[in-house]
Specification:
Distance between the termini: 55 Å
Largest sheet: 6 strands, parallel
Number of strands: 19
Helix content: 25-40%
Number of domains: 3
CATH class of the largest domain: Alpha Beta
Strand order of the largest sheet: 2-1-3-4-5-6
Number of helices: 13
Length: about 450
């Protein structure tokens, strides 16, 4: 009888990519994949530890799987098992705990699990052991129209609030050959957009022997070997948004006019405490250069609210900077203390009530800025990648994203998923726009 396996991913796009690669490996070996709400023989939970909330959700999903089928094999992997092994072990019915070093080898491990050994069986090594990029045995799979392509893992930044370098190891790059092989595979299957991602994307190539290899060089190679219409970059740190990358947007029309550049704070004192590698002035200068090259660029960002030492002046500096830049979206994260990092030793903590109030102010500002940014696209013609089809009040619609990250709905059309169509933005409505076929 065909065995069923359910997957659940918590956390970042890198986790999503890695889950997709594991899913494809199980499918190739005869397993049937089901949702986490369905009865399965095996459940695989790819966990996250970037915040306390992410760890809570990870444990919640493990317990949910145990309730669905107490006789199932439950696999917990990812960052939360590296950071919080004791709590993960106490979750009911966990059969296998596999750290990040063993994630790509899970399929082989479960085939060798001993039914007589005490559960959970644990395979965890220190992140220091991960010195080279671990290639997946299969390319990632998903039903998305935009496909994720992981090119890098690990981080050397050691921001004071972050434990990811301790859980995923130092920065390491995937070989150009492997990246291009996956891109060509996606191109051959007709995909129109790829999203390049990594834990610290901009550091791509810094650990490779060939000093000429970096992110821009890789982009040029992707353009050379494929007919991919759009290349989107995931989150990238400010120091890597240099003149070479900014110029690349002019050289390669395939690069989407959208960058997610974490800011975290608009106050230099807080940035220093966070061990960020820039000042607010440097961030503003980079944004000015980007907007000079691409006036239509969508800039999105992350902000941590309530970092230890953030007084009212520091928070107002952040609000003012967010307004000045005019981000198209701000992802707001209440500060979450993590063990093993330097910020956990800071004593000047911010009250939870204050963090909630400040978070609300920033979320409200983000919504306002999103409306304003979408409004700037009114009357413009943009290419839209159709990602979903549906009906609304008996009216058929297609929706998708422009290259500068505006969600557009088109009504009474007969497009198919995966098509790239030119539209004119004729109406804006808060968080999205309405378009019609360009004449």
């Amino acid at each position: 009888m065909t065995q069923k396996i359910g997957f659940k991913t918590i956390g970042c796009k890198v986790n999503q990519y890695e889950t997709g690669a594991l899913r494809q490996l199980f499918i190739r070996n005869g397993y049937k994949t089901v949702g986490l709400d369905e009865i399965a023989d095996i459940y695989l939970i790819n966990t996250c530890a970037v915040t306390r909330e992410a760890e809570r959700k990870s444990k919640q999903m493990i317990r949910k799987a145990a309730r669905l089928n107490p006789m199932s094999t439950i696999i917990a992997t990812g960052c939360a098992v590296q950071s919080n092994l004791i709590d993960i072990k106490e979750c009911n019915n966990v059969s296998l705990i596999a750290g990040n070093y063993y994630k790509e080898n899970i399929f082989n491990i479960i085939k060798k699990l001993s039914p007589v050994e005490e559960k959970p069986q644990i395979f965890i090594s220190s992140a220091d052991k991960i010195t080279n990029y671990i290639e997946n045995k299969c390319f990632s799979s998903s039903n998305r129209i935009r496909r994720l392509v992981k090119i890098q893992d690990g981080c050397n930044q050691f921001c004071s609030y972050c434990i990811i370098p301790y859980l995923r190891g130092r920065a390491r790059s995937r070989s150009v050959e492997q990246v291009l092989s996956e891109i060509e595979d996606l191109d051959g299957k007709g995909y129109k957009e790829v999203v390049l991602l990594g834990i610290n994307l901009g550091s791509y190539g810094s650990d490779l022997n060939n000093s000429k290899i970096n992110l821009v060089n890789l982009i040029s190679e992707i353009v050379r070997v494929s007919n991919i219409d759009r290349i989107r970059l995931s989150s990238i740190e400010l120091p890597y948004v240099d003149k070479e990358l900014i110029d690349a947007f002019h050289c390669y029309p395939e690069l989407c006019h959208h960058l997610h550049i974490p800011l975290q704070s608009g106050d230099n004192r807080i940035l220093s405490l966070m061990n960020r590698k820039y000042t607010s002035e440097q961030y503003n200068r980079t944004v000015d250069s980007l907007k000079e090259q691409m006036p239509d660029i969508a800039l999105t960002t992350d902000i941590i609210v309530g970092f230890p030492g953030e007084d009212e002046t520091a928070f107002q500096n952040t609000l003012n900077m967010v307004r000045k830049i005019g981000f198209s979206k701000v992802h707001v994260f209440p500060y979450s203390e993590r063990r093993f990092n330097l910020a956990s030793f800071l004593s000047d903590t911010v009250e939870e009530k204050v963090i909630k109030e400040r978070s609300k102010q920033l979320i409200d500002l983000s919504k306002q800025l999103t409306r304003e940014y979408i409004g700037k696209n009114l009357g413009k013609e943009r290419d839209v990648l159709i990602e979903s089809l549906g009906k609304e009040n008996e009216l058929s619609f297609a929706s998708g994203l422009t290259d500068n990250y505006v969600k557009v709905f088109l009504y009474n059309t007969s497009y198919e998923k995966g098509q790239v169509v030119k539209v004119k933005i004729v109406q804006t409505n808060g968080s999205y726009a309405v378009g019609e076929p360009a004449s």
